[in-house]
Amino acid sequence: MMRRAIIILIFLLLLPAIAGAVRVKDLVDIEGVRVNQLVGYGLVVGLNGTGDSKSTIFTIQSLLNMIERMGLTVEPGKVKVDNVAAVMVTAELPAFARPGGRIDVAVASVGDAEDLAGGTLMMTPLKGADGKYYAVAQGPLVVGSLAFGGKAAKVQKNHPTSGRIPGGAIVEREVFNDFEHLTKLNYRLKEADFTTVTRMTQVINDYFGEPIARALDSVAIEVKRPAAYEGRMADLVAEIEILDVIPDSIARIVVNEKTGTIVVGNEVRISTVAVSHGNLSLVIGESAVVSQPNPLGGGQTVVVPQTTIEVKEDKGNLVVMNMGVSIGDVASALNAIGASPRDLIAIFEAIKASGALHAELVVL
């Protein structure tokens, strides 16, 4: 019974740390293990008269080139491209992709096509930043939108000039990566922070029982491969990425004045400050009064505008927030004075200007 009570007590003491811990795999990227962007130019055929117009010259040229490669000769003036659209095809080549694997592709019109629904992408080579071709895309498009109507009205949902082909590209070339024979790993934090780097380094060294990790700066961590993991680099990465680290972050408030969105970090603190909030509303009304002359008076009927102005100012509330209060206290205090999101933005900006806000204020 006593042993069970001790175990429960230890668990309760460790619960806050466990709750705030994040896996290493969610905090970092491994240098060299990354996706590569691919791009290509192709044609979508089979459209129901919603393709490019005759003014799109490059579509006509591309269609003629494709037909000539198939052994046919057609006069340019007799070619119609109503059912054809020129498109750009983009994809991401995952790390360690092997020839024969399939990846998703995105297709978007580059001409004046109206709708790509029902179209099929013809074979399109995709090349990387080095100019080499790594995949070939082809297949029917999934547009997920609609557009129809006439000259006077049109109904459209989503974007009919772009779509996707799930698994529409076949990998033809792999990116060379000698991952298994590496002697060290270089980790890069997604959010630079010296404290987080130090904590992650300590967690790795404690887990393996030797100083194999060292922090290079606020972003980079170098991990040497232990002798027991020679030829087993994947196993080493798998063990490191499931380790729990409590990340640190900069106290920050992010506000978007266009949408009225406010995001406040947990580490935000303020000094003792008094906040007063009062709404001033100005209501302007305007109406028209018709003035008519007396019968047989010889006058004219005129419209006389009348304007009324009403000024209302709510009673201001002065709320004192003490030094070192948490974000929960800040939210409760500001909600108590009935501040709207846009008012909160102005209040945070004023507190920052007064020097009482100990956080970074980011205005989008």
Q: Can you walk through the features of this model?
A:
With 364 residues, the chain is of the alpha+beta class. The protein folds into three domains: 36-171, no CATH class; 178-245; 252-291 and 302-363, no CATH class. The chain contains six helices and 23 strands. A six-stranded antiparallel beta barrel has the order 3-4-5-10-7-6. A hairpin with a 4-residue loop joins strand 15 (252-256) and strand 16. The longest helix has 18 residues, at 2-19. The two termini are 57 Å apart. The relative contact order is 0.11. The model is unreliable at 1-18 and 280-284 (pLDDT under 50).
- The rough form would be described as flat
- Helix content percent band: 10-25%
Overall mean pLDDT stands at 79
Radius of gyration (Å): 33 Å
Count of helical regions: 6
Spatial strand sequence of the major β-sheet: 3-4-5-10-7-6
Instruction: Name the structural class.
Output: alpha+beta
End-to-end distance = 57 Å
Can you write the helix and strand succession as a string? HEEEHEEEEEEEEHEEHEEEEEEEEHHEE
Strand content: 35-45%
The parts where pLDDT drops under 50 for at least 5 residues are 1-18, 280-284
Instruction: Describe the main β-sheet briefly.
Output: 6 strands, antiparallel, barrel
- Count of individual domains: 3
Number of strands: 23
